[in-house]
Amino acid sequence: MFKRPRPTFDVEVTAVAPLTSTLLRLTLAGPELARLSIEHPTQWVKLATPDGASRAYTIRRHRPAEGEVDIDFVLHGNGPAARWAARARPGEPIRLAGPRGRRPGFDGAAHVLLAADESALPAAFTILEQLPAGTRVSAYFEVAEPADALPVDTAAELTTTWLPRAGTAHPKGGLLAHTVRTVDVPAGTHAWLAGEAGAVAAVRRHLLTDWALPREHVQTKGYWKHGEADHKG
Q: How far are the Cα atoms of 33, 175, 186 from residue 66, in angstroms, in the given order?
């Protein structure tokens, strides 16, 4: 199927802000970003690093009047985008293309279940910031350390469980899968799951099989996978 080319934007880093032990926020700016159109939560862009690598990242915030976007990077190892972000300083140029991504659907949900490791926290937070008041939400967020819990801005009726891996025997993504498979899932739940592909698949099977949720009510995205340098989720 032919895919229409996405708009590209040449921007530069204007601010670098560590958020947690593993998350780093870069503010990217350029006058062209005034025409970037972000229509719904979880939309993402492709970043082209100077060494030619291309990786997908969620737009955490977009300020069109200022020609700025915020993008949060997980500093998790040797990936080219993570290496670039770790050493980026104001003035560093980079190109982004997009946006892309489907709108997450929660219409008619009596309850929303969100589950994410730190790779998917930016996307999960964009969902929470746009859910309407009164929406019942249970969120499970896996992070590296207890101090990595972040404040959440939402009008929803939110219960958040932070799951630090420190001191556990679980691999990255494993604590999230283990925990979510032990919780009760109310009738009428719509679920959004994102993070390590194997963990996400395990929770999805649990929700479909053990709780008999309709397939259309379980939205999943494998952002990365153990043993793969460039997982295509």
A: 8, 39, 42
